[in-house]
Amino acid sequence: MESPWDPEGKGKGEQGQEETASGFFETHLAPTFGAFPFPGEILRKALKQTGGYFPVEIRALPAGTVVHPGVPLFTITAKRLKGKKEKKDEDGNGNENGNDDDGKETSRSPSSSSSSSSSSSSSSSGVPSLVTWLESLLTHSWYPSAVATLSRRARDLIERAFERSCDQGKESFLIPSRLHDFGFRGSTGVEAAVLGGAAHLLSFTGSDTVPACFAAQFGCNAGKAVASSIPATEHSVMTSHGDEDRALEKEIDAFGNGLFACVADSYDYQAFLDRALPLAKRKLDERRAKAKERKEKGEEGKEGGDGDDDNEENENGFFVIRPDSGDPAQAVLSGLEAAAKTFGSDVNSKGFKVIRGAGVIQGDGVTLSKIEEILEKVLEAGFSAENVAFGMGGGLLQAVNRDTMSFATKLCLVVVVAAEKEKKNQAEAEEAKERDGNLKKNLVSFDVMKSPVGDRGKASLPGALAVARDPETGLLTAVPAAALRDREGKGGEEDVFSAWRGLADELELVFDCGLVPSRSKPGFDELRLKVKEQWESTPRVNARGAVHPALREWAEEVRRSGGRKESKWK
Fold first, then answer.
1. Strands 358-362 and 318-322
2. DSSP summary character for residue 36
3. Rounded CA gap, 465 and 484, in Å?
4. How far is it, in rounded angstroms, from Cα 77 to Cα 59?
5. Which residues are 74's β-sheet partners?
């Protein structure tokens, strides 16, 4: 991959980009104040040493991972840049753009979900300030994560209703199509629609957000389809004809050999049910009769009188009624009752009615609570959940925000030079720097956290963090990073992390002053399977259950110390 920064200054290059940025920040200021602070000099030095990439290390949970609130999703660690002395030792001459360690405060910046923090570190002056510039960009992961979680919770509700009322239970092949993405037109833009729409497809296959389907299929699944939809009318189709019956007849002529949907409330929903359903039944029966006649004459596959070329085997027209106004639960029940009366129904092994050749999709006012309400009333009325599907638009792609699951990126560790030691032992510090290339002997790390008195729910976690699977439950848990390392001699002190020593940190290295090469990326089908398996196997715990008890206790100690305390675990 080519560097995004041009060290030779060609085109916009480093100089041009920095001038543009500097020019912007010089004018981005409040009245009576100076220019907005922009670390141009630090950025220039850093990017030259890293070939154009931010001097940070980023670790992240793999895509498709299921975690509880409080578990870090990724960490950002500011990396120490080489100083002039080290550059000279490495390439034989001094580098005026090297960055000397001058003992200023350093920082670590994190990210995670639901008011937790994760860790990042540094030991070079100035560079930690660049970490904050990545905070907003990486925190944007809240959006697809929130949509994916909402969609999966909807699937839970639907699966439970299928378990109660369908012969195949939650293993029914119908479930992946029971929540359809109607959200494209309500999205804030194409990019948002792609991110949110693809997240929804981790749990369902139904979608009319075509850009998301295309991106997931060709960008993540080697061209293999990941979504589907069916022919369906909208209000403009129905009103342009002026006659709903004529519009429905034309739709059946064109698409009556399979699934098709028709919006039913352009004028009068109940009148449509009373009038149009018998019409649809008659038209579909006529198609089947013609197909049967062609088959008996040995003419299957030949073009029929209505322009169709279908034989009896694929004459399985299924009429989906779509109400789009009124009380959602009542609209669904009215549609089911009218369809059962017109098309007939059978009673399955669990005692619920399954309508023949028709069903209802509710796409107006759909939320998680409304899905639950509708399904409950459908089952109370004696209908199987398989008679109903849902379409979710703004409620799926727009009714979430960063606070939905309390996403936040917070500072959790700072590394500083002990000032008093610096003054007394400057010679020792220089000797240490000469020997091992850093000020390690002078560095002190502090675990820091946010814990507002007015809202403890916004408290973050302090210190360098890792994520590992609980040895007993398998639950992905936030732990101090030191908990996974082999323990050095501590005398007779109890080791609260003895069972965790040597476990793998689930936060994988994805960026280290540049993209990490040779990282395998799972296909979309693999991600779907992973989400399903992890969602079903992840233990259900309370909001604090996914944070190691020792870390929770330490967080409380740090909070009582004013939110900053010298690191407990080195």
1. parallel
2. P
3. 10
4. 8
5. 60, 111
Global confidence as pTM: 0.86
Backbone angles phi, psi at 557, to 5 degrees: -65, -45
The chain-wide mean pLDDT, for the chain, equals 84
Asked if residue 459 belongs to a domain, the reply is yes
Q: What share of the chain is helix, strand, coil (3-state, %, to 5)?
A: 40, 15, 45
Cα 20 vs. chain centroid, distance in angstroms? 33
- Domain for residue 332, yes or no? no
Q: How far is CA 274 from CA 40, 264, 270, 282, 339, in A?
A: 71, 11, 6, 14, 10
Q: Terminus-to-terminus CA distance in the chain, angstroms? A: 36
Expressed as residue numbers, the domain containing 474 is 56-75+106-120+128-133+407-429+446-566
Q: How many domains are there within the chain?
A: 1
Residue 427 scores a pLDDT above 60: no
Q: What letter does residue 80 receive in the DSSP assignment?
A: P
Alpha-carbon gap, residue 425 to 101, rounded angstroms: 15
- The CA-based angle 454-459-463, given to 5 degrees, is 145
Is the residue at 462 inside a domain? yes
Helix/strand/coil for 128: helix
Of the CA atoms within 13 Å of residue 308, those in its CB half-sphere come to 24
Rounded distance, CA 555 to CA 463, Å?
Answer: 9
Per the domain annotation, does 420 fall within a domain?
A: yes
Strands lying side by side in the sheet with 413-417: 413-417, 443-448, 564-566
Give residue for tokens 């498709």: 64
Does residue 126 carry a pLDDT above 60?
Answer: no
Pairing, β 109-111 against β 74-78:
antiparallel
- Judged by DSSP in three states, 208 sits in coil
Helix (H, G, I), strand (E, B) or coil at 328: helix
Smallest CA-to-CA distance from 56 within 107, 116, 112 is with 107
